[in-house]
């Protein structure tokens, strides 16, 4: 798959038969809806696109996630949800025999997934577990982290549901599972395996379960959602409703780059043009961009672009050309001064 932006002459909901949709920052933010998410996903379903919601959160059951989505006008069934807890249990199965003791440090979603995978869930390092499965839970405290550290220190395999350092909530960013895993790592010096994004494990499981052939990953975080898409070989749509900004996308390394860009999920119902190189400028719609002498310059394609666009320049086409110009320059070995990349609003 190309490290640059892709084009689609038809709406993405028609070009792909399955979308793997992230939750926090894409479908909702904390307990609040995200503008146009419900309408965009409903329209995608009307065009025949199937949806599976894929989340790094391992604390909740698929039934709870489906219920929250349904309350936000996104009707969802439990089997349309794939959690990091399920991926964590699948990773445990690659090395452990059924009946093996696993110390679960996390919420009920992880307990259920590990139990359903055939393992014996224990709560203490003194039970001699052969593995520690760690996932996010808002109730997690020092005592549980200490049990995990004791078990890992005695040789138990440490498997994290994900390594997200932060968790978006309605009030801002809170410590994520990766921050809590970091406490165990600091105490033991042992690096854990991870089942969550950016590992593509969940994506592969969801695709296998759905039996899909043309798969689109939708996310808001370059370092998890889109990195996982790249690693798994799936095109990724970066929606600018969550963590990673348009500027982050412009400055992204090849392994973190999306294949498509969008302001919100209404983009599933639209074609996606890709920038083209014309007279040393990358052009898409009325927007144009180039990198010259390490400086990103933005302008209008209808005129002779000159100078740099002011911070706050708007339009998804402007984001597209900025990405195309920056990525092409960096990949060709040219320097790009990050200070010349403004904040862009789609």
TrEMBL record:
The family database entries (SUPFAM superfamilies) matched by this protein are listed as: HAD-like
Protein origin, superkingdom: Bacteria
GO-annotated cellular components: cytoplasm
Q: Which UniProt keywords apply?
A: Hydrolase
- A GO MF term: phosphatase activity
- The keyword ATP-binding belongs to this UniProt entry's keyword annotation: no
Can the keyword Magnesium be found in this entry's annotation? no
Which protein are we looking at? HAD-IIA family hydrolase
